[in-house]
Specification:
The complex is a heterodimer.
Chain A: H1 7-28, E1 33-36, H2 43-48, E2 52-55, H3 62-69, H4 78-89, E3 99-104, H5 107-120, E4 123-128, H6 135-152, H7 159-182, H8 187-199, H9 205-214, E5 223-229, H10 238-245, E6 248-252, H11 262-266, H12 275-284, H13 295-307, E7 312-318, H14 322-325, H15 328-334, E8 339-344, H16 348-366
Parallel strand pairs in A: 1-2, 1-3, 3-4, 5-6, 5-7, 7-8
Helix pairs in contact in A: 1-8, 3-4, 4-5, 6-12, 7-8, 7-9, 10-16
Chain B: E1 9-10, H1 12-18, H2 24-29, E2 31-32, E3 41-42, H3 47-52, E4 63-64, H4 67-77, H5 79-88, E5 92-97, H6 103-107, E6 113-117, H7 124-128, H8 132-139, H9 151-158, E7 167-173, H10 177-188, E8 193-198, E9 213-215, E10 222-224, H11 225-246, H12 252-278, H13 286-298, H14 303-323, E11 334-339, H15 346-353, E12 356-362, H16 378-386, H17 395-408, E13 413-419, H18 425-439, E14 444-449, H19 458-475, H20 496-501, H21 503-516, E15 521-524, H22 531-536, E16 540-543, H23 552-555, H24 565-575, H25 580-584, E17 587-591, H26 595-603, E18 610-613, H27 622-642, H28 649-670, H29 682-686, H30 696-716, E19 726-731, H31 740-747, E20 751-756, H32 774-783, H33 794-806, E21 811-817, H34 821-837, E22 842-847, H35 854-867
Parallel strand pairs in B: 5-6, 5-7, 7-8, 11-12, 11-13, 13-14, 15-16, 15-17, 17-18, 19-20, 19-21, 21-22
Antiparallel strand pairs in B: 1-4, 2-3, 9-10
Classes of the chains: A alpha/beta, B alpha/beta.
Chain lengths: 368, 868
C-alpha cells in the first residue's frame, strides 16, 4: 500500500487498518464481505443483506499485474490484470473479500468476471450495468439488483439497515463534496480520504472525515483543474503528485472521485432502502464515457468546470480503456478550457512520461 | 449453360481472360434492385474490374472458377452501387451497427429500405490496401488502440463506401467496446443513432437460485428469462424507431415475411457449411465460404438477390459432390477450423496454397446460421437469436462452440486469427486455446493479423506454414513443399501496349500513393479544363470516369434517358460511387460546355467541392476571350485557395513545359497513324487515352510505344491490308469502354488513322505558347479547341482538312453520341464540307454506349467502306 505523505494521510492509513481489522473480525464472526469495482453498484443493497461492501481500488502495482498476467494475455487493461493477480493470490484486501459483485461494464471487466470463477475459484454475482440510458435499461438493472438480493439473502434483507447505510454514506459523501470543492485540501490528502470512503463502513464516517480535515495541511493552489476519467487507484498518484507540487488544485470528477457520490450531481437523499430504489439511484448517478449516448458525461464535466472555475481538464484513462480514450478529440473540441487526455499504466517506466506530459500541459496553461 | 472450365482456384488475371466466355444468359440473371430499375441493374463484373476500382487485395487472392462464385464476388462488391442507387431514389438507408444479423430481420420488414453493416467496413482498408479510412478515424480520436472497425468511422466521414445513412441502429452493452466507442463518435458526427442494449447472457457460472432459466430453441443456449424479456423490449424499440423513419406501422405479417426471407438465407448458408466443411475434398474454397457465411448477416444489402446467389452456390456444391469434383483437385488438404474472421483475406488463399483447407469456422456469427423460431412472434424470435450470439456471452461459451464445430467437421487443427486492438480477442484466445487442447488434443495457433498493405505479414504466413506442416506430419502424409503462394504485386508491364491497356489499375495505385504523400487531386471531365494550371498548383489533374455503359441504368433513375451517354455514365459513376478518381478528388472542375453536363454538375455539388469554369463560346471574338481569361484567372485563385499554395509564374512555366512535353509525346504517338500502309491500329492509338496527366511512367511508356510501333513496322510491316480504307473519325470523344465504333470499323476492314475528337488529335493540335504571359498562353491554347459547343466552329473544319491531308484519309465517319445536340447539328456542316469540298465518303453514326446496335453499325460501316 502507498506510504502516506502527510499527517492526514497517516491518519487515513491508520483508519483503513482499523477497518481491515474490523473486517477480519466481521468475517471471523460469520459475516461476509462483498467486493466491487464500479460505482454503479449500490453498496447499501449489500449492507441490507448484512454484508460489508468494499470498493476495491488499491494495491495496484507491477507485482500483482505480473501475477494477473500469468492468467491472461498481456494486452488487456492493467487494472483488470492487477485485479486477477490480487484475487488469484489473495493478496491484501483481495484476500478479505468473500464474494464479488461482477458488474459487466466494459469488455474487460465483463470478460474478467465471467472467467474469474474458473481462473481463481472466486464467487461472483453477475450484473449487467446497461450502457444505454433508457427507462427500460434502468428497470432491467433494478431487476438484476433485486435478483441478487433474493439470491444472496441468507438471513433476509433488511431495508432499514440498507437505508441507514445509504444515508450514512450520503452524509460522509457530503463532507467529501465540500472538501473537494473548497480548494483548500491538497489533491493527495483528498485522494486518501476518498479511498477511505470506498472501504470504510459509513456509520460515523462523516465525523471521522471531518476530524481528518482538521489535520489537513494548508493548501493554497494557484489554479484548479478538473481531473476526469476512469477510476484512480490508491497507489496511482503520479499525476496527483505533480499537480500538487505545482500548486494545482484538483476537482476529482473521475470514477473514484466525486462521481462515486450521487449526492454531488443529483443532490438526492436516499429515501428508500429497497434494492430496486438503490439500484435506480446508482444507475442514474453514472456519468461514464461508456454510457450511450454519453452526453450526460460531457455535461457533468462541463458543469464541473464552470462551477469550480477550473482552468483546465485532465482526463486520465487506463491503457486499453477505449471508452474514455477515444473521446479525446471530442473533449478537446467541446471544452472551453485546455484539455489533456492521457492514458496510463502502473509500470514505473510510465511515471516519467506521465509527469512530463502533465508538466508540459501545465506550462502551456500558464503561458496561455 | 455451357461453362467449359474445370473446378479450380484461379487468379484475377485468369478471371479476366475468361470473362468473354461467360454466357450472356448467365450475365442476364445477375441483376440487382429490380424494384428500382426495371429489369434490375447488371452486376456481373470480374474481380479484376473491382481490383481496378480500388479493392487491390483481390489481385492476391485465388477464386473458385465457377460462374456461381463469380456472381458471389460481384454481388458482394456491388453492394455500394445498390446503396447509392437506392439512396438516390429516395429509399431509406439504415446502418446496422454491432448486432450480428438481428437488426436487418426487423428493418427489411419495411418497404423501400436497405440496411448495411457499417461494421463490415473493417475489411475495407485491407481490401483496398489503403489506410485513408483509418487515417480519417484517427483524426477523430479512433487510433490504433481500437480494432480495424474504426474504418467504419472513417467511412462515415468520407462516404466513399455508402451514402449518408438515414438512421444508424447501434447495439451496445454486452458486445464490443471498440465499436461502442466508434459508434459514439459516429453519433458525434451528427448522425441519427438509435441505441439499444445487447443483454449479457451470463452463461457461466449460473449461480442465481431465484432466477428462471430457459434455453434457446435453436442454439440450446441457457439464459435468464428476464434477459429475453428485456431484449424483446429493446428490439421493439428498434421497430418503433423504424416506423417513425418510414412513416408506416410494422404489422406482424411484415415482420414474419422478413423472418421467412432471412430463414431461407440462414438455411442456405447452414446447408452450404455442412456440405462444404464435411467434405474431405471441399467442393468450394474457403474464401467463397467466407463471403457466403457473412451474407447470412449482411445480405450484401439485398436479401432477395442473396437467396438467388446462395442457391446457385448450393446447386453447384451439390453437383460437385455428386461428381466428386473439387477445386482442390485430387488432394485431400489438411483440415483447419478457423476462429474469428481474418482481417487479411489473403491468409485463406495462403492456407489453401500450402495444402490446407477450411473445415469449419467460428467467425463470431455462428448464431446467424440458426433459423429464427417460427413458433413465437418475430421480435421474440430475433431476441432469442441474440441469446445465441457468442459475443454476448463468456469466452468459455464461445470456446465450447469452437470445440463442437471442430469436432463436427473433423478439424485437425485450429487457427485463431485475432484482430489487432480488439478488446475481446485476448480473452477469447485464451479460453478457446485451452478448451481445444483439453478436449480435442489438436494443435492450435493464434496470432493477431496486422494491417500490412501489399503483402501478408510474413510472421503470420510462417505460423500458418508451420501449422500445415505439423498437421501433414501428424496425418502421416509427406510434408508439402508448397510455397506460401503469395502472389507478388502486379508489376508494371514493360510492354507499352499492355501497359496502356491496363493503365487504369496503375493509375489507381499511383493516385493513392500521391494522395497519401499529401498531393491534391483535381477531377476534370473536359479538355477545356487546363491541366497545366492544376499541375502548377501542385495537384494532379485526373479525367473522371464516364465511358462505361454499366453505370447508365443507375444514372437513368435520376437523369432523363434521352441524354448523352457520356453524361449519364459520368453521373452513374458518381452516384454509385464507382469512380475511384472521383472518390479521391479534392476538387472538381465543372466547365460549362454543353447544357447536359452543365446541369448534371448541379446535381453533384453536395458530393465534392466544385469550381464552375464558364466557357464562352464565341471563339472569334476577343471579348469572349477576355471573359474566358478571367475565368481561368478565377480558377487559378480557387486552386491557390483550395490547396493553400501560390501559383507563381515559375510554377506555371514549369507546368506548361511539362504538359507540352506530354502533348508532344502523345502527338508523336498519334502521328504513327500517318504511315501508309498503317503500322498501328486505331484501337491501339485509342488505348493511349489515360486519365492522369503528369505521371513520368506514362511519358516513358509513350516514348516506348513509339519505338515499339516503329520497330514493329520495320519488322513486320502493316497491321492491315494496304488497301484498307483509311478513316478519319470525328465527333464525340471515346475512351475505354466506349470504343465500339473503332472496333466495328476495324473489324469491317477499315483502319482508323486519326481521330479528330477530344480523345484524339483535337486537344493536341496546338501547344501552349512558352513565351509571353503563361496564364494567357494557357487560356488561349484551350480556347482554341474546336469543339462543337463553339460558334461558329470553323476551326473544326480547318483542322479536319489538315488531318485528312496529313493522314491520307479516304473516308470520314462522324460519331455522335445520342442526344449530343451540338455535334449532331454540326454534323450537317461537316458532311457538306467533306462531301462537297473534299469529295470524300462520309457517314454520320448516332449511337450510345450499348452493344445492341453493333450489328446494324457493322452493316452500315461495311457498306461505306466497300464504296471506297
Amino acid at each position: 500500500m502507498l506510504e502516506p505523505g502527510s499527517r492526514l494521510q497517516e491518519r487515513c492509513l491508520a483508519r483503513m487498518e482499523t477497518e481491515f481489522n474490523e473486517m477480519r473480525e466481521f468475517r471471523d464472526s460469520g459475516g461476509k464481505t462483498l467486493g466491487y469495482l464500479c460505482q454503479g453498484f449500490p453498496p447499501a443493497a449489500a449492507a441490507g443483506l448484512g454484508m460489508w461492501p468494499v470498493r476495491v481500488l488499491s494495491e495496484t502495482g507491477i507485482e500483482l499485474e505480473d501475477k494477473g498476467g500469468l492468467l491472461v494475455r498481456p494486452d488487456i487493461c492493467p487494472l483488470v490484470k492487477v485485479f486477477l493477480g490480487g484475487v488469484s493470490t489473495g493478496s491484501g484486501i483481495y484476500g478479505l473479500v468473500d464474494v464479488w459483485a461482477g458488474l459487466t461494464t466494459c469488455d474487460q471487466t465483463r470478460r474478467c468476471f465471467s472467467e474469474l470463477p474458473g481462473l481463481t475459484g472466486a464467487v461472483v454475482h453477475h450484473f449487467q450495468l446497461p450502457a444505454t440510458r433508457s427507462d427500460a435499461s434502468e428497470a432491467y438493472y433494478r431487476r438484476m439488483v433485486e435478483r441478487f438480493c433474493a439470491d444472496a439473502a441468507e438471513d433476509g434483507y433488511d431495508q432499514a439497515k440498507a437505508l441507514k447505510y445509504a444515508n450514512d454514506r450520503f452524509s460522509a459523501g457530503s463532507v467529501l463534496v465540500d472538501a473537494a470543492l473548497s480548494g483548500a485540501v491538497s489533491p493527495l490528502d483528498l485522494h486518501w480520504m476518498f479511498h477511505l470512503f470506498h472501504i470504510a463502513r459509513p456509520e460515523g464516517l462523516d465525523g471521522i472525515l471531518t476530524s481528518l480535515l482538521e489535520d489537513a495541511e494548508p493548501f493554497r493552489p494557484e489554479f484548479r483543474v478538473v481531473l476526469a476519467g476512469s477510476s484512480i487507484s490508491l497507489e496511482d498518484v503520479a499525476i496527483l503528485s505533480i499537480l500538487q507540487s505545482r500548486k494545482v488544485d484538483v476537482v476529482p470528477l473521475h470514477c473514484s472521485g466525486l462521481q462515486s457520490l450521487p449526492a454531488f450531481d443529483l443532490n438526492a437523499l436516499p429515501v428508500s432502502g429497497e434494492p430496486r430504489d438503490l439500484a435506480g439511484m446508482a444507475f442514474r448517478s453514472i456519468r461514464c464515457a461508456r454510457s450511450r449516448p454519453n452526453e450526460e458525461m460531457f455535461g457533468y464535466i462541463e458543469r464541473g468546470i464552470v462551477q469550480t472555475s477550473s482552468a483546465g481538464l485532465i482526463v486520465k484513462t487506463m491503457k486499453f480503456c477505449d471508452l474514455w480514450f477515444t473521446e479525446r478529440e471530442r473533449f478537446r473540441e467541446r471544452m472551453t478550457v485546455p484539455v489533456l487526455v492521457i492514458d496510463t499504466s502502473f509500470s514505473l517506466g510510465e511515471t516519467e512520461r506521465q509527469i512530463a506530459r502533465v508538466e508540459a500541459f501545465l506550462d502551456t496553461m500558464v503561458h496561455r | 449453360m455451357k461453362w467449359g472450365f474445370e473446378p479450380d482456384r484461379i487468379s484475377v488475371g485468369d478471371w479476366e481472360s475468361r470473362m468473354p466466355a461467360v454466357p450472356v444468359e448467365f450475365e442476364e440473371k445477375c441483376r440487382f434492385l429490380r424494384q428500382i430499375v426495371p429489369g434490375g441493374v447488371r452486376y456481373l463484373f470480374s474481380p479484376y474490374e473491382y481490383s481496378c476500382r480500388g479493392d487491390v487485395l483481390l489481385r492476391r487472392l485465388k477464386f473458385d472458377s465457377s460462374l456461381e462464385a463469380l456472381r458471389l464476388w460481384a454481388f458482394l462488391f456491388s453492394e455500394k452501387d445498390r446503396l447509392f442507387l437506392a439512396k438516390e431514389n429516395g429509399w431509406k438507408i439504415v446502418a446496422a451497427m454491432k448486432d450480428l444479423g438481428q437488426v436487418p430481420v426487423l428493418t427489411y420488414a419495411f418497404p423501400e429500405t436497405l440496411t448495411f453493416y457499417a461494421d463490415e467496413l473493417w475489411w475495407a482498408p485491407c481490401f483496398s490496401e489503403e489506410p485513408h479510412l483509418l487515417d480519417e478515424a484517427a483524426k477523430l480520436g479512433a487510433g490504433e488502440e481500437l480494432c480495424f472497425v474504426r474504418a467504419a468511422l472513417g467511412a462515415m466521414v468520407t462516404l466513399d463506401y455508402f451514402p449518408k445513412p438515414d438512421l444508424c441502429i447501434a447495439g451496445v452493452g454486452a458486445c464490443c467496446d471498440d465499436f461502442s466507442a466508434i459508434m459514439q463518435l459516429i453519433e458525434g458526427l451528427g448522425y441519427p443513432v438509435h441505441w439499444w442494449e445487447m443483454a449479457a447472457r451470463f452463461d457461466e457460472p449460473l449461480e442465481s437460485s431465484t432466477g428462471v432459466y430457459r434455453e434457446t430453441g435453436q442454439g440450446g443456449s441457457r439464459y435468464l428469462s428476464d434477459t429475453r424479456l428485456f431484449l424483446e423490449g429493446q428490439l421493439q424499440s428498434v421497430v418503433r424507431r423504424m416506423e417513425e423513419l418510414v412513416g408506416m406501422e410494422a404489422t406482424t405479417d411484415m415482420l414474419a415475411g422478413s423472418r421467412t426471407l432471412f430463414n431461407t438465407i440462414r438455411g442456405q448458408v447452414s446447408e452450404l457449411r455442412d456440405l462444404v466443411y464435411s467434405a474431405r475434398r471441399p467442393p468450394l474454397p474457403g474464401l467463397e465460404m467466407f463471403l457466403s457465411e457473412f451474407i447470412a448477416i449482411h445480405t450484401c444489402s439485398e436479401p432477395e438477390e442473396s437467396v438467388f446467389v446462395l442457391q446457385g452456390l448450393l446447386d453447384l456444391v451439390r453437383k460437385r459432390i455428386e461428381r466428386g469434383e473439387s477445386p482442390f483437385g485430387c488432394s485431400e488438404p489438411v483440415r483447419v477450423f478457423w476462429v474469428t474472421p481474418p482481417t487479411d483475406a489473403s491468409l485463406i488463399t495462403i492456407l489453401e496454397d500450402l495444402g490446407g483447407c477450411i473445415a469449419g469456422t467460428e467467425y463470431l456469427i455462428s448464431h446467424a446460421f440458426l433459423k429464427l423460431s417460427t413458433d413465437v412472434e418475430p421480435v421474440s424470435a430475433v431476441a432469442e437469436n441474440c441469446l445465441d450470439d457468442c459475443m454476448t456471452g463468456s469466452p468459455g461459451f464461445r470456446a465450447r462452440r469452437v470445440v463442437e464445430g471442430a469436432r463436427r467437421y473433423g478439424a485437425e487443427g485450429v487457427i485463431i486469427s485475432g484482430i489487432s486492438g480488439a478488446s475481446h480477442c485476448p480473452w477469447d484466445e485464451m479460453s478457446i486455446r485451452l478448451a481445444v487442447e483439453r478436449e480435442l488434443g489438436i494443435p492450435v495457433i493464434a496470432f493477431d493479423v496486422p494491417f500490412s498493405p501489399g503483402r501478408p505479414s510474413e510472421q503470420v504466413v510462417n505460423r500458418i506454414q508451420g501449422l500445415v506442416e505439423l498437421l501433414q506430419e501428424r496425418r502421416g502424409t509427406s510434408v508439402s513443399t508448397a510455397s506460401p503462394g503469395i502472389m507478388p504485386p502486379p508489376e508494371i508491364s514493360s510492354d507499352p501496349l499492355l501497359y496502356f491497356h491496363n493503365s487504369m489499375s496503375t493509375e489507381v495505385d499511383q493516385i493513392r500513393t500521391q494522395k497519401r504523400a499529401g498531393r491534391g487531386v483535381v477531377g476534370i471531365y473536359c479538355e477545356f479544363s487546363p491541366r497545366d494550371l492544376i499541375l502548377a498548383a501542385g495537384a494532379l489533374p485526373v479525367c473522371l470516369c464516364g465511358s462505361s455503359r454499366r453505370t447508365i441504368p443507375a444514372a437513368e433513375t435520376v437523369l432523363p434517358a434521352n441524354l448523352c451517354p457520356l453524361i449519364k455514365s459520368s453521373f452513374g459513376y458518381i452516384i454509385t460511387n464507382r469512380c475511384p478518381f472521383f472518390v479521391v478528388s479534392d476538387l472538381v472542375v465543372a466547365e460549362t460546355t454543353c447544357d447536359g453536363k452543365k446541369k448534371m454538375y448541379e446535381l453533384i455539388t453536395d458530393r465534392k467541392p466544385q469550381h464552375i469554369l464558364e466557357l464562352t463560346q464565341k471563339v472569334d471574338e476577343e471579348e469572349a476571350f477576355s471573359h474566358w481569361m478571367k475565368e481561368v484567372e478565377r480558377l487559378k485563385i480557387r486552386l491557390e485557395e483550395h490547396f493553400d499554395t501560390e501559383i507563381t509564374e515559375g510554377k506555371l512555366r514549369n507546368a506548361i513545359t511539362e504538359m507540352n512535353r506530354e502533348r508532344t509525346l502523345l502527338r508523336n504517338a498519334l502521328l504513327l497513324g500517318r504511315n501508309r500502309p498503317s503500322i498501328v491500329t486505331g484501337l491501339e492509338l485509342a488505348s493511349l487515352r489515360y486519365r492522369i496527366s503528369g505521371l513520368p511512367e506514362h511519358l516513358r511508356m509513350l516514348e516506348q510505344f513509339v519505338l515499339e510501333i516503329e520497330a514493329r513496322g520495320r519488322r513486320s510491316g502493316a497491321v492491315c491490308s494496304p488497301a484498307a480504307p483509311r478513316v478519319l473519325l470525328t465527333g464525340c470523344p471515346m475512351a475505354h469502354g466506349s470504343l465500339k465504333v473503332i472496333e466495328v470499323i476495324e473489324e469491317s476492314g477499315g483502319i482508323v488513322v486519326v481521330q479528330e475528337t477530344c480523345s484524339g488529335w483535337k486537344p493536341l493540335d496546338t501547344l501552349v505558347d512558352e513565351e509571353g504571359d503563361p496564364l494567357e498562353a494557357i487560356a488561349r491554347k484551350h480556347f482554341s479547341i474546336p469543339c462543337s459547343c463553339m460558334t461558329p466552329n470553323s476551326g473544326r473544319l480547318e483542322l479536319m482538312d489538315r488531318l485528312i491531308g496529313e493522314f491520307s484519309v479516304d473516308v470520314v465517319i462522324d460519331l455522335v453520341w445520342h442526344a449530343c445536340h451540338t455535334y449532331s447539328v454540326e454534323s450537317w456542316l461537316v458532311e457538306k464540307h467533306v462531301k462537297e469540298d473534299l469529295d470524300l465518303p462520309f457517314l454520320k453514326i448516332e449511337t450510345d454506349y450499348s452493344d445492341s446496335d453493333r450489328e446494324r453499325l457493322s452493316v452500315r460501316i461495311q457498306t461505306l467502306l466497300e464504296m471506297v
